[in-house]
Amino acid sequence: MEGDGLSTAAVDTEVATEYEEFDSHSKWGSEAIRAEHQVCVSDPETRQHGLTKHTTYLVSGTTLQGSSFSTRKRYNDFEWLKQALVYAYPGVFVPPIPRKQKMGRFEEHFVENRRRALEEFLQRIFNRPYLANSSTFKAWLQRGESGMEGLKREYIRKPLSELFHEYRNGFQPYLRSMQAPGDKDRLSAFKQYLTKHANSLKAIYRVACRVVKAHTDAHVAISELHTKMADLRNGEVVFVNDAYGGSQQSVRVDLSEVFYAEKQSLAESPSQSYDLLQSVVGRELRDVESMLEGIQSLDKLTHMQMQTRGKLEKEENIQHNIARHQQGDFLSVLRGKDKEAQLHDVAISISRLRQELQLLEEWIGLAKVVLTCKEMPSFTSDKVDKYRDVVEEFAKRQAATSLQRAELWSQFLRRIGREQAPYGMPPTNGLGTLRATGASMSVPPAPVPPSASPSSSTTLSSAPHTQHTGTPQTHDGRDGGGAASGGDGGVVVVGGASGGAANGCR
């Protein structure tokens, strides 16, 4: 890896990443743990040295071979591991890690979210034996804080041939079922697709964030609306009671109970489950960016091949010039090297470059097979399957929520005797009779699909009843009199004992 180690801070991606980071504790769209292993990132500890602070995490567990490990790591150590694996495994998907953050990175909720995301990063590496069995990863697990600098130096000095042989051995179990790609343009098309796909996901993610926030804010507002509606009606009841001395008089419909019931029905998911879409899209976006890093790592390997070929051509030209001059290269003669020594040195350099070029050609060919025949199809199908599963759950929850809310408002309409009837038919109370003439009804809750998770069905009877004084009342049939709708919209006129009604003072 001489001259081509991890000299850059990270492999650049073509996708901008200014979108808001999603909460890593959301598991919708996450990858199942498939490997037999134990890995845990725990016990975050923030330390301060002078004016600087950093947080370390305890990384513990057992490897695929059963060896135990327990070391403390900083976020930068995880970042280095990610970069090292991307470089050593061109064309391969290496799971993403949480992004860097300058502000608020020592706050408790941020540290916890990062801990969860780092643990998931390691779990996903263990899901891929070719990564989990790499010498770099196994050494990383065993090195503590004091040993990380030494590991980085060892990695930079590691020969390219060693990395290639480890890459080839890691994919040996898969190579039997792989065939060389027949279309050389498939890689380019895949890269272009991922770039456009990432931009689409980013746009959807931004909108999903807005929808989640809007529904969450609306849930808070409905909570306030419940109390404000109760205050409004209570004030009116007190006024009517005082002004008319207890005589029956119209008061507005009480919406506080139905808003309370609606608030309770959404308590378990104030965002109305749009956070499921937010999570699966956010996770897919991060994975797409990581897949692009793998493709760009292959591009870097191809660039290294071109550089090596250029160096080889240069050395061959030097060899030709030395051979056709009597004393060889003039500057080399001044340094005390005769023609024979010059030819010997350049021959060694040419031999080394030819070996390196052959290795790079083999590595690039193998990486293209791995990317085209393994990574591309598995990556695409995995995203399609996870998206389908989450969307199915989202649809079930939306259906359950819609049924529950529809039944809630239908129950409210039945209580006030104003449920809509088919065109040309008189309004009914849902039981085939005319407007409700009996006591308020208790309606069974709407059915909820087993997999949906909105809170248990809420009926109007479960809402806290507002205490009212006096006799003013809405039309619920308790007087047995006739009723007429007032002209104020939402004010229901209640008839007296004789069945007559008037909107105003008598």
Structure explained in plain terms:
The C terminus is likely disordered. Helix 8 packs antiparallel against helix 9, helix 8 packs antiparallel against helix 10 and helix 9 runs antiparallel to helix 12. The termini are far apart. The protein is elongated, with a radius of gyration of 36 Å. It has a three-stranded antiparallel β-sheet with strand order 1-2-3. It has a three-stranded antiparallel β-sheet with strand order 4-6-5. It is mainly α and 506 residues long. The protein folds into two domains: 140 residues, Phox-like domain (PX Domain); 325 residues, Substrate Binding Domain Of Dnak, Chain:A, Domain 2. The chain contains twelve helices and six strands.
